[in-house]
Design a protein that fits this description.
Blueprint: E1 3-4, H1 7-11, E2 19-23, H2 34-40, E3 45-50, H3 55-62, E4 66-71, H4 83-91, E5 95-98, H5 101-113, E6 117-120, E7 136-139, E8 148-153, E9 159-168, E10 173-174, H6 179-187, E11 190-199, H7 207-210, E12 213-214, E13 221-224, H8 242-251, H9 255-272
Parallel strand pairs: 1-13, 2-3, 2-9, 3-4, 4-5, 9-11, 11-13
Antiparallel strand pairs: 6-8, 7-8, 9-10, 10-12
Helix pairs in contact: 3-4, 5-6
Length: 273
């Protein structure tokens, strides 16, 4: 059974130097955990985005917590580029581990299967191989003729964090069709999940929900955070607030603007409490 924690207690599970896995903006980002993580201040993080990063990892970069970012892209979608990421790259203050969407998925797939690597063919002939010495071009052992293929090492995060609509009292978490969240949970040493609500009935006992459930075995802790993905959206619950995302994109273009955005959001949170 998963432990039920507060957001602050959950943030304290993240230690300096950990490899932290986060989902793409449309797939259940726990924005409710962003400020507790910043307040906790565990730095030197290696953040892995499955498969792209957006507002949450950008804010962690702006707060100085990220040493390495591993992703196939950093974007705020219609709101434009990720400003803190762009500033950090220009300043040389973070290391980027460049990837592609299929390669990130392959690394997570290898980890959840318990094997050292997965293979991809589409990377052959691309420039990205020159910048990824950890990706190895090997020969297909089942071919009688030369047949190169790329071996992608397993990605095994220390902790994954995401947001979902619902969990039950046993700690089972419903993710519906968002299978990338299952990949995060199955590949990571521990998984921390915020949810809109916790229900008494078992999500695994209902045929209508069971297929979309991550069992509690893979969930370390759960915290309730109403509207915990906002200003991003959560499928079946609410859409994204693109005006707020755009405001962040404007204000975070400078270090001072980013800090002002954080301070304003913190004041609003305190007033809501």
């Amino acid at each position: 059974m998963s432990t039920v924690l507060t957001l602050d207690a959950m943030a304290r599970r993240v230690k300096p130097g950990m490899k932290l896995a986060l989902p793409v903006d449309y797939a259940g980002v726990s924005m409710a955990m962003t400020r507790p993580l910043i307040a906790h201040g565990a730095g030197r993080l290696h953040v892995v985005c499955l498969p792209t990063g957006g507002m949450q990892p950008d804010m962690l970069i702006g707060a100085g917590l990220v040493e390495t970012i591993e992703t196939s892209a950093m974007t705020l979608g219609e709101a434009g580029g990720a400003p803190c990421f762009a500033r950090a790259i220009a300043a040389g203050s973070i290391r980027i581990v460049d990837s592609t969407c299929p390669a990130v998925h392959a690394g997570f797939l290898a980890a959840q299967k318990g094997v050292p690597f997965a293979t991809l063919r589409g990377l052959i002939g691309t420039d990205i191989l020159a910048h990824r010495p950890d990706w190895k071009v090997i020969d297909n052992p089942f071919s009688e003729t030369p047949d190169p293929i790329v071996a992608i090492p397993a990605i095994r995060p220390d902790v994954a964090i995401f947001h979902a609509p619902v969990a039950d009292r046993d700690g089972n978490v419903w993710i519906g069709r968002r299978r990338e969240l299952a990949s995060l949970a199955y590949a990571s040493e521990q998984t921390l999940v915020t949810v809109e609500r916790i229900v008494d009935e078992s999500l695994l006992s209902d045929e209508r929900t069971a297929a979309g459930v991550i069992p509690a075995l893979y969930v370390e802790a759960v915290a309730v955070a109403r509207e915990g993905a906002k200003p991003l959206g959560l499928w079946g619950e609410y859409g994204p607030d693109m005006m707020e995302v755009a405001r962040y994109a404007r204000e975070a273009r400078s270090e001072a603007g980013f800090r002002a955005f954080l301070d304003g959001a913190d004041h609003a949170l305190e007033a809501a409490r």
